Amino acid sequence: MSQYSTFKVGGPAEAIISVTNSEDLARLIHWLKKNDVNWWIVGRGSNILVPDQGLAGVTIVLEGEFSSIEKLESEGSQKENSTLIRAGAGCLLSKVIHYCTKNCLSGFEFAFGIPGSVGGAVIMNAGAWGHEIENLLDSATLMDNNGEVSTEQGRNLGFTYRGWGMKPNTVLLYATFTLTTSSREEIKAACRKYQELRKKNQPLIKPSAGSFFKNPPGLSAGRLIDEAGLKGHSIGGAKISEKHANFIVNTGSASATDILNLMRLVQNTVYKQFDIKLEPEVHILGDVG
Ligand code: EPU
Predict the structure, then answer these.
(1) What's the Cα-to-Cα distance from 39 to each of 35, 228, 287, 289, rounded to whole Å?
(2) CATH number for position 32
(3) Which residue of the set 162, 182, 184, 234 is catalytic?
(4) Which residues are registered as beta bridge partners of 67?
(5) Which residue has the higher pLDDT, 273 or 168?
(6) How many CB atoms lie within 10 A of CB 36?
(7) Mean pLDDT, to the nearest integer, of 9-14?
(8) Which of 12, 47, 63 is the endpoint of a domain?
(9) What is the pLDDT of residue 278?
(10) Are residues 124 and 172 in the same domain?
């Protein structure tokens, strides 16, 4: 799975199935349920950690019609100066931002440089610079674990800081976003500004999964790890970035076990020093004991 993860670590998946349309996905989910096989969806792998022993069960990748983006016709109920676009869960966020810039649609600039898919960004309620994706989401097309498709308003999805409130194995198929019209130059300038901030504060060159831990309420995980003196600390090929302490980077030879051991060391050290339990933002897949 290392090629499906921005950490560039992880053992083999027992099976990977690329699904290109909703009908096939419904049939597959039925079959997996009937045969009691574990499954999960992987987007662009920018926020996952796959153990070295790999993943038992079926890893599903959404491609084909799930990579589409389209502008929806106005239905009269929209706010003035707003446009709806619908993007498939498998679509890269960078593709959405490119589409928005080309069509003079503003809203997604904050996500410039986030390396995920639409599906991953929505289910994680991706955020940066004071913005979160839930504030752009109009509605979502979902599939439940019986293969039934429904549409939900964004406000009913139970969004939290870096999460949504839907049942496990609810699949996001499409997301409809509300965007406003702006000038292409303004959109480009905002994207540049956020990219500069990201370059200044975050280690973007070495493989990582972005922020590793969630910020505890009112606090900064990066600052706590920094104050615990862990910047630059490494286990095997996994290292706490010198540039931002909430980034664990793969210096080239990391295994998933190195990253997990470093994660536990950070959690134990921060807990001992500050009595605060850091929770990973990264989704740890499979059985890590
Ligand atoms: N800080 C330190 N030492 C460090 C790193 C940070 O003292 O090594 C301090 C900073 O000086 C600042 C505070 O901690 O005062 C917060 O740091 P920063 O501004 O970098 O933001 P963050 O809370 O660490 C969050 C998101 C990022 C997002 C940025 C920008 C989380 C867990 N992370 O980082 O999201 O890009 O804000 O808005 O909420 C991600 O989720 O993967 C991600 C990169």
Answers:
(1) 11, 38, 13, 19
(2) 3.30.43.10
(3) 162
(4) none
(5) 273
(6) 6
(7) 97
(8) 63
(9) 98
(10) yes
Q: What is the CATH number of the domain that holds 232?
A: 3.90.78.10
Number of domains in the chain: 3
Residue 125 sits in the same domain as residue 41: no
Look at the chain and count its residues: 289
Active site residue 77: no
> Residue 285 carries which DSSP code?
-
- Residues 73 and 177 both lie in one domain: yes
- CATH for 78: 3.30.465.10
Condensed to tens digits (0 to 9), the pLDDT of residues 99-139 reads: 999 999 999 999 999 999 999 999 999 999 999 999 999 99
* Helices (H), ranges, the chain: 22-34, 93-102, 118-123, 184-201, 221-227, 256-274
What tokens appear for 203 in the block? 């280690």
How does pLDDT run across 76-95, given as a tens digit for each residue?
Answer: 555 678 999 999 999 999 99
Residues with beta carbon inside 6 Å of ligand 1?
128-129, 201, 210-211, 214-215, 220-223, 226, 244-246, 281
Instruction: Indicate whether 92 and 119 sit together in one domain.
Output: yes
Q: Mutate which of 220, 231, 241 to test ligand 1's pocket (most atoms within 8 Å of Cβ)?
A: 220
